[in-house]
Design a protein that fits this description.
Length: 103
């Protein structure tokens, strides 16, 4: 099982729509850099919470010279963790608000 950190929770929440997401889109959506995001994706995939696939292309010219994308999607087990992820982010937000307001 993957520890539910705020960063893991954020990735799960972005991916909760059930669609496939590629790395750069997840970087933009979460605000994480690749050094934070890709290890999280790897841990989630190894734990069976994500599935991934490589974009199939005949040549790099076909996709404008860029590297083929790797797409990630929540598995059913990953989708089951979305409520836990939401609770983690909510509790973190409440704690942060208390600290910032001096309460």
């Amino acid at each position: 099982m993957v520890k539910m950190t705020v960063a893991v929770a954020a990735v799960l929440m972005v991916m909760r729509d059930g669609n496939e997401h590629y790395g750069q889109a997840l970087i933009r959506a979460t605000g994480f850099d690749g050094g934070t995001l890709y290890p999280i994706l790897a841990r989630l995939r190894v734990a069976g919470l994500l599935e991934s696939r490589q974009e199939e292309v005949a040549s790099r010219q076909e996709i404008g010279g860029r590297r083929p994308r790797r797409y990630f999607k929540l598995t059913a087990a990953g989708a089951e963790l979305v409520p836990q992820a939401f609770a983690k982010l909510r509790s973190s937000a409440v704690a942060t608000s208390r600290v910032l307001s001096g309460s």
